[in-house]
Structures are given as C-alpha cells and as structure tokens.
Amino acid sequence: MAKAPGLKDVAKAAGVSVATISRLLNGSLVLPDETRKRIETAIRDLGYVPNPHARRLSRGRSDMIGLVIPDIANPFFAMLVAAIEEEADKLGLAVSLNATLNRPGREMKYLGLIEHHHVDGLIFVTNHPDDGELAGLINRTGKVVIVDEDVPGAMVPKLFCDNHQGGYLAGKHLAEFGHKKVVFVGGPDEMISTTRRHAGLEQGLRERFGEEAEIKRYRGEYTVTAGRHAARRFLDEKLPATAIFASSDEIAIGLIEVLYSEGVSIPDRVSVVGFDDVGPLHLFTPPLTAVRQPVRAIGARSLSLLLQTDWQQPETLEREELLPVEIVVRSSVAPPAIEKKRRS
Amino acid sequence: MAKAPGLKDVAKAAGVSVATISRLLNGSLVLPDETRKRIETAIRDLGYVPNPHARRLSRGRSDMIGLVIPDIANPFFAMLVAAIEEEADKLGLAVSLNATLNRPGREMKYLGLIEHHHVDGLIFVTNHPDDGELAGLINRTGKVVIVDEDVPGAMVPKLFCDNHQGGYLAGKHLAEFGHKKVVFVGGPDEMISTTRRHAGLEQGLRERFGEEAEIKRYRGEYTVTAGRHAARRFLDEKLPATAIFASSDEIAIGLIEVLYSEGVSIPDRVSVVGFDDVGPLHLFTPPLTAVRQPVRAIGARSLSLLLQTDWQQPETLEREELLPVEIVVRSSVAPPAIEKKRRS
C-alpha cells in the first residue's frame, strides 16, 4: 500500500507553503482565486485526505475542537455555542458541534472523537445525572473541559456560572419586596444548577426572614413544558406562595404562558424572577426580572481552559471555576398581594 | 505499511457483529457494560480509527451528514438545527454541524468535507450574496441540499418556505385593518427571502387598495441591531407609515425595543407584523402577530431530500420546493391611528 499523500506533497505540487494550505483548509485564510484553484487541483489530483492525526497548526495547537451539548433548541445552549464559535474563529480554530439530545450513547460516541483523534479536545456539556460511567470515560480520555453542569468524579477542569450567587440574588431581591413564601421551580434534583440555585435562594430569604422563610420546591426539567406543568400545579395548590423563582428562561416562558391564560396577573397576584436571561425577556408583559448568565464569558473561558490547560500534569487538572452572575431588575416583582391588600 | 485494522477486525476480536459495532459507534445502540467494554478494548488494542470512506450503514446509506448554517445565535437557525438533529436521530444518523459566520472561506471549507468524504452529504444554509463561486463549488461537489436562502446557479435540490405567501398573508392582514402605507423592514436586497416577502406584501396590499397602497422599503440584515436601526429611522422620518412588516423575529425584537423606549405604542400608534415566530412572541407586549415558518417541516424535509435524491441523475436534480407558511394572529395589529381619530 502506497504512503498516503501528505500536506507537504500538496504544498510542493501547488508551489505554496504547508502553512498556507493549512490555513486555507481551516478557513482562516482567503487566497486569490488563482492560488486557491491551484491548491484545490493539487488536492484532487493527489487524492489528498486531511489526516486527523496530522491536523495541527504551527506551535502544536490543534485546528479543530469538539463541542458537545445536549440540545441546540434551548436558546441558552445556542448562545453558548455561538459564543464559543466566535471565540474559536478569532483564534483560527474550527468547531465540530455535536448535539447529544441527552443520550448517554451519543455522549460516549462523541468522547470517542478524541480517542480517535478526530478532534484535539472537547468542551462537554451534559445535563442528566451520571452513574459514574461518563466520568470514567472522561477521565480515561482527557482533554475535556466540563461546562455548565457537573459530571461528579470527572477529574478535569470545570467551568460553571455561580449558581449559588444567582439563587442568592433572586432570594435577596424577593426578600426586599417582602416575599417570605417562594416556590422554586428547578431542573432535575441531582444537577448542581438546581441544588446550588435552591441553596442560594434559601440563603437570600433566610438572611431577612430566618425561620419564617418558606421555600416550596417543584422538581422538573429546564423546558417550556416543565414550566407549564409547574404553573398548573401552582394553580391547583391555590397559589401556595407569593412569588416564584423560575430557574431557566424556558421554565419561565411556559410558566408565564399558563399564568396569563388563567388570568393570574404578574406581579399583582404573583411575582416572578427568571434565570438565564438570554431570550427577549425585556419585551415580556411585564418585562421579566431575571438572573443573567455570563454566556459570552463562559464561551470564551471554556475555550481558553481547553487550550491553556497543561494536560500532561494530571495533578493540576481538577479545579472548579465559577463565573459571576448578575440580576437584571425589570418589572415582574412587586410586594406580595396580601401586603398590598392590608395597606389599601 | 501494514493495512489499517478495519471494523471486521474489531468485530472478530470482540466477538460481535460488524453491525453491532457500527451501531454502537453511531450512538444508535446501547449495549451491556461488559460487551461495550470488550469492544472498546478491541478498538484500543487494534488502534482502530473509523475510516470515513468505510463509514456506511447497511443499505449503502451514510451515517454522518453535514449541516452548514450561518449563525447559531439566531433562534430560527437554532430551531432548524434542532429539527434536523431530531429527524436525523430517528433515522440513526449523526449530524456534524458547522457555523460559517457567513464567511465564504468557511463555507468553501465545509463543502470540502464532502469532497474529502468526511460526510456523505450536506444541508447547506447561507445568507449572503454569492458571486457565482459558491454555486460553482456546490455544482462540482454534489450531494448538497440548499435550504432557506437560494444560491443562484446551484443545480441541486432547494427547499424554502413560501416567502411570497408569507408576505402576502401579512399584507392581506394589514389591508383588512385598513393599512395602506406600510414600512417593510427586510434583510439584504439580493436574498429571495427579502424580495419574495416584499413582493407578497405588495400583492396583499394592492389587492385591496390598488395604486393607493404605498410600501417603503428599509434594507438591512436579519439582526436585532438592524431592527433597532429601522425603528430609529422610522422615528426620524416622523412615522411615515401606519404599520411595519418586520421580516424576522430578530428585526422585530430590535424594532419593538426602540419603539417602546421612545413611547410609541403598539398597536395604538403603529401596527407590527413579524416573520419567523420561533421566539416567545406570544408573551410580548402586546402579543405579536407574525407569519410562522414551518421550522420542523423544513428540518424533516431537508433531510429527506438529501437522502432520497438520486444523485446519479443530474438532470432530475434542480427543483425548488416551497413549504407553506401561516399567519398567527395575536394583538399587534389594529386600525390605523388616523382612522381611530376620525371615528372618535
């Protein structure tokens, strides 16, 4: 079997440097038509197929990173992908994006992209509980940065928003308006996004009201459907709180939709605080107060973590980095309805 | 050079069928831990690297398709990607997603994925004008389905929403409320989405008002920023129309944001109709009337076009398929302000 033609052979045939071809192929260079066509002809004539093992830029950096996310239909993930794409583009890196639909089989497969050297590192986002299998594979694979939700037991760099702080800011804001009884609509119980936001909310409320503070926890998923279910439960239970902390944009959308259709006015009857703030919440009726995730910063930092980590020094690897969040105050929080009644 | 190990060698070493490994690798099969580990060990021991040329399911179908889109941060594209992912998953196909950020260099590169057999077909979305170079490369490459916007001169199957019908439905709806003067906020002039929606709008208005109908055309991009610019121009020109047709969700968001902040009430001062309807427009103040794109249908059909087309019969290839749109009537259109004044 003859040796497969390499980048050097193509460069020689086209009369250009290896770096020029490499940059043309990764899209970071636009060449005059005539030069580009000469290179394309050389590639075709030689039957050159880029070899994933050889796909490296100068200074030993890879030109392709992988990005694994659960679901692109969720605007938070879509914005995160866009932020990573933009940052990667600045660095001349291509991104191979893979959606897992939260299927463990797909996650395992995409981790295999590293083992098979099709990408040189992965930014990995999952949001379902792991029985240890995923963590094991990640530890064996290496060159993985875990973003947004934890995979417990994985010994790789991890980057999250400061979920506890986000919950705390929501709780403090609600407490300032006099809300003691709050319904927390979270995602799956095992996820750090849910447990930490819940703990932060509790701290924010207890700082002001101590044992009087009362949090009811609705478990669910980060979806519009789960938001609708939570609203129906809230109505079935005859409004068991004066405020709701909806822990994602998607949950807030489903929740508000049902509250409206049932004539429950926000914030007159119930106050609502959201989380994510990637959708057009400022145009809602009323504009929704929400904790804002630093999506661009998460995108940029996850990429720099992947590129700057010294993967040869496993003992330096495990560390958790938190990016700060802020609360964007709009008009969906008012004093509890019961307070207003007493005053009038 | 020794022959590289193939799927058959792995299957033999692991004591399973080739089909089992193929399905495990493409994520469509979950195996007992013990079996999976045996296969993984065999893959590692043999140093097996999946060969893109050999990556085929039974019946000659590829297991990896490519999807090229301009920008994942635009929710319309994010939803389109999700629709294609979901459909691909049902068929046991993996999707390699690539964002071009509208850079021709990146588009050329991803078309190269087919030439290099890394994917077995591409669903291709672009939204910038082409000087013929892209069309030429697409024609040379084959196995490309063009979706959402045209690449003139490309002789491959094309799938669009019925843009003309969408514009017509918006125009008819506005005309029914008595609007004769309408501002059309479009994307780039050369794009069929803009020219066809504009022509449809004109037909809808002229059917009722003939030569009295007056359309002012604002050129721009399908972005929130362009929507903001359009609103400022509309204000600078002292409200030159009684209604605005904003030809994307993103444009509508930027437009409404500025109109609000300047105290221009919708629909009391100006009526607005949007296009896309993928965002939570039903929660806006007021809920926004919009033409809805059939995103799921576009996703499913673009995949079936790619899989069902007989690529060996070039003469049967070129055809344009349109998917119907509908108008979702909410509360952002009312009779023109001037009419209301006369009546009261």
From TrEMBL, chains A, B:
<dbReference type="Pfam" id="PF00532">
    <property type="entry name" value="Peripla_BP_1"/>
</dbReference>
<dbReference type="GO" id="GO:0000976">
    <property type="term" value="F:transcription cis-regulatory region binding"/>
</dbReference>
<dbReference type="Pfam" id="PF00356">
    <property type="entry name" value="LacI"/>
</dbReference>
<dbReference type="InterPro" id="IPR000843">
    <property type="entry name" value="HTH_LacI"/>
</dbReference>
<keyword id="KW-0678">Repressor</keyword>
<dbReference type="InterPro" id="IPR028082">
    <property type="entry name" value="Peripla_BP_I"/>
</dbReference>
<dbReference type="InterPro" id="IPR001761">
    <property type="entry name" value="Peripla_BP/Lac1_sug-bd_dom"/>
</dbReference>
<keyword id="KW-0804">Transcription</keyword>
<dbReference type="GO" id="GO:0003700">
    <property type="term" value="F:DNA-binding transcription factor activity"/>
</dbReference>
<feature type="domain" description="HTH lacI-type">
    <location>
        <begin position="5"/>
        <end position="59"/>
    </location>
</feature>
<keyword id="KW-0805">Transcription regulation</keyword>
<protein>
    <submittedName>
        <fullName>LacI family transcriptional regulator</fullName>
    </submittedName>
</protein>
<keyword id="KW-0238">DNA-binding</keyword>
<dbReference type="InterPro" id="IPR010982">
    <property type="entry name" value="Lambda_DNA-bd_dom_sf"/>
</dbReference>
